[in-house]
Amino acid sequence: MRKRVFIALFSTFFFLLFLSIPAQTVIEFNETGRLAMLARAWGFLKYYHPHPQQTLASWDDTLIQAIPKSKLAQNPEEFSEVVVEMINDAGPINPVDFSKLTPGEASKEVFFQWMTDPRFFTPKARYLMTVILNNFNNANSWTTYQGGTGIITCDQEVTYDTNLYPDEALRLLSLFRFWNVIHYFYPYKYLMDQPWDNALTGMIPKFINAGNDLEYALSVRELTASIDDSHAFLRSSVLGQQYWGMYFPPFLTETIENKIVITVLLKSIDTLQVGDVILNIDGTEIKALRNKHYKYLAASNSVIKERELNAVLFRSKESQMQLGIDRLGSYVSVQTQRIDYDHFYDLYLKSELGPVSEILDNNIGYIHMGRLTIEMVDSTMRELMSTRAIIFDIRNYPKGTLYNIAYWLNTESIPFVKCTCPNSSRPGFFIETDTLSCGPYDGTKNTYQGKVILLFNEKTQSHAEFTCMALQTAPDVTSIGSQTAGADGNVTSISLPGGFVAYFTGLGIYYPDGRETQRIGIVPDIVVRPTIQGIRHGVDEVLQRAIDYIEEE
Amino acid sequence: MLKTTAMKNRYIIIFLLVTMTPVWGFQFGVKAGGNLSFLTMSKSQDNWKNDLSWQFGLSSSFPISRFWHLTPQIHLSNFRSQLAGRFEDNSLSWNLSRTQIQLPLLFKWQPLARKEGWQPVLMLGPQYILNIASKCTFSFGGDKEESDVAEKFESNNFGFVWGIGLEIPISKGSQTCLSLELCYNHNFKNQIPINVYEIGEFKQNALSLMAGFSFL
Predict the structure, then answer these.
(1) Following DSSP, what letter does each residue of A85-101 receive, concatenated?
(2) Residue B1 — pLDDT band, cuts 50, 70, 90?
(3) How far is it, in rounded angstroms, from Cα B120 to Cα B110?
(4) Confidence class of residue B172 from pLDDT cuts 50, 70 and 90?
(5) A212 lies in a domain?
(6) Residue of chain B minimizing CA distance to A48
(7) Is B46 part of the contact surface with chain A (CB cutoff 8 Å)?
(8) Residue of chain A nearest B198, judged by CA positions
(9) Is the CB of residue A333 less than 8 Å from the CB of residue A246?
(10) Could you say which DSSP state residue A395 is in?
(11) Is the pLDDT of residue A182 over 60?
(12) Do B197 and A139 touch (CB under 8 A)?
């Protein structure tokens, strides 16, 4: 009996495990399937064919010509003919250009398995693509390295930014261009929730059916958000003006205890209080708004989804705002005014003002990393040298001070990070760099002897996370806070038709032992999250926990 | 009209060559034969097979001493190379065909300097080459596609020719003779200076065997 129960539980566990693995969509030979394969073939030829007869603009034109033919293709022969035409358009294969014309078999590499699919490609098309693959010799000239950073730039792309609602072919070009740049150059494709192939087949109908500039912009936003990267910003005038709106709330909110809570009043408003829990906005429940907006929010993890939600939730095209609020258990309805962006930004900057560093009670040093500049590091560290501990508050965006600070904290140079750079010479593959170190190389400096405390939360992103990694090399360091943005590594951008610029993490960042920070973020030693009660009482609970920890020690 | 003028010019040249022959004492001849080309692409990873092809031309021979003759020639030559292989279950082949006008200026040495009878000859001299056509035929699983690749090649080339031959008078005392020549054409210039996937230096040399007929 016990054995049967065990087998049943065991089987159920594996069944659930199987269900939880995102399945790769099988591509059918229908219009969407053909377009998906065309996108792959076009992208492959873009980065692997040497393009002796092409510019990027004419390569875009090649796709634009191929799209209607691909839609009409009735069988693999007709579809392959479209692909062969594209190859010939780029520069036909011939023995006076190619040094290896007898490959024998198609590529066995999983990355290129799509080109061996007989449901789409005839043997001849498969052969021609294999020749291009086998002959590849640093032919990709459409991406170049951004000086010294290891990330690529795509600045040769044609922007097509005069028309905010381009025609269907250009909309599909937009999708195919972004899909391919991610496919070949995004270092964290393997960390996405859904296989990237699924995004292509899923988004094709949306890009085709987008009926106006807003629907198109939302499709682009959904596509770029689907890479699960907090760096996946999208510059778009349409989204700001038509979807989110250009009026902003006169307050800041955060998701605390799964509720949207006002954390900062940017200006004094009698009817609102810090700690108010927002239940509905202009008559719409938060849950409904969350469901509506979530797919458009670029985030590496659920905490950042909420951060991004809070950034857009209260924006509107209307200046009037009606809020339903839970205030200490009572429902309150409040009508208030939104403010324009300039006013909002001005107030936001003022709210961020404060001391760069200070000595708190009981001789505890505090540094706000978002305010500390490189020039201030030495004097600040000298000032705090005799404190029993220094709290480095990285719940903000530091100003490139990590190496200078590490010089004061470490007795020697310690490796803290290694990177993977996209291989521009062989798109789709990545190069692992040597580790980077921080701290003094000569060890002659008088290093700080006290405790080092790092504070971070969901506002800690990118360079801030990188800073955390560097400062974690300090001898007596403790990390306190909550999950960070999980978007480490320099950012790459690419223009998309319709006036968009899409961004994504362009560099893989890992601890020297191989642990990754993308999506996971920096993991704290002590997890502390603010509470609604703490917010109401104006207590910075994360900072307080750090002080308590120092006192306890 | 233009065509007619061009043809007229050709006839005039032939006429002058034929009529001046007795004046200068040189020989004039025609020859034809086959060749086996040797294609090399220094970085190619494929095994190209050399094919037989044809060539024919006109020659002349000026006596410059008892043993030496200067023989300017003009040949129309075709060279072929083939690459065969398989991809999955399909046979494939690439055929490269190049047609050239060769202008060798050979020094012919007749070591026996016989007045009569057969005699061996040695030939050596530079040549200038004009590439006039280059075609590539791709066969895959029964399909055939021909493409013009002339623009990939240099328009000209230069090289060296050396060879051996035999001249056999048709009858005793006759100045008209049959000739048989085996020559090696060695060309110097890389024919594809810009290639996409670094095939390296493209050179095509050839061994030719030609039979000819020369007369005063």
Answers:
(1) HHHHHH----TTT-S--
(2) very low
(3) 6
(4) confident
(5) no
(6) B197
(7) yes
(8) A99
(9) no
(10) S
(11) yes
(12) yes
Chain B nearest CA to A73, separation (Å): 20
Only one residue has tokens 């005039």, namely: B12
For residue A353, count CB atoms less than 10 angstroms from its CB and return exposed for 0-12, middle for 13-18, buried for 19 or more. Answer: exposed
Domain that holds residue B105: 25-215
Cβ contact B98:B78 at 8 Å: yes
In a domain, A501, yes or no: no
Nearest beta carbon to residue A96 from set B43, B85, B149:
B149
Domain with A325 in it: 241-339
Query: In this complex, do A98 and B196 lie within 8 Å of one another by their Cβ atoms?
Result: yes
Q: How many domains does chain A have?
A: 1
Residue B137 belongs to a domain with what CATH number? 2.40.160.20
Contact B86 A104 (CB under 8 A): yes
Q: What is the pLDDT of residues A507-523, one digit of tens each?
A: 999 999 999 999 999 99
Give the confidence band of B150 by pLDDT, cuts at 50, 70, 90. Answer: very high
Q: What is the pLDDT of residue A443?
A: 62
- Across residues A381-386, what is the average pLDDT? 96
Average pLDDT of the segment spanning B13-40: 74
CA-based nearest residue to A178, from A156, A198, A194, A200: A200
The answer to whether B91 contacts chain A (CB < 8 Å) is no
Quote the CA–CA distance of A455 and A477 in Å, as a whole number. 11
Instruction: Enumerate the β-bridge partners of residue B130.
Output: B101, B156
Q: What span, in angstroms and rounded, lies between the C-alpha atoms of B155 and A543?
A: 78
Question: Hey, what are B66's tokens?
Answer: 């008892």
How is residue A347 written in tokens?
């107030």
Distance (Å, whole) CA A449 – CA B204: 75
How many structural domains does chain B have? 1
Confirm whether A309 is domain-assigned.
Answer: yes
d(CA A39, CA A174): 11
Q: Show the CA angle centred on residue A166, arms to residues A162 and A168, nearest 5°.
A: 160
Is B119 a domain residue? yes
Asked, for residue A526, whether it belongs to a domain, the answer is no
Question: Does the distance separating the beta carbons of B87 and A99 come in below 8 Å?
Answer: no
Q: What is the token pair recorded at B126?
A: 């530079």
Buried b (16+ CB within 10 A) or exposed e, A234-250: bebebbeebbbbbbbbb
Q: Count CB-CB contacts under 10 A for residue A75.
A: 12
B90·A123 Cβ contact <8 A: yes
Q: What is the pTM of this model?
A: 0.88
- Show residues of chain B in contact with A50, CB under 8 Å: 196-197
Q: Is the dihedral of CA A485, A513, A112, A56 positive or negative?
A: positive
Residue A225 near residue A298 (C-beta atoms within 8 A)? yes
Residue B109 inside a domain? The answer is: yes
Q: What is the CATH number of the domain that holds A296?
A: 2.30.42.10
| Substitution target from B87, B90, B96, B198 for chain A, most A beta carbons within 10 A | B87
For residue B198, is it within any domain? yes
Whole-angstrom distance, CA of residue A246 vs CA of residue A65: 38
All residues of chain A having their beta carbon less than 8 Å from the beta carbon of residue B152 are 94, 96-97
A135 to B87: CB separation less than 8 angstroms, yes or no? no
Is residue B9 one of the residues assigned to a domain? no
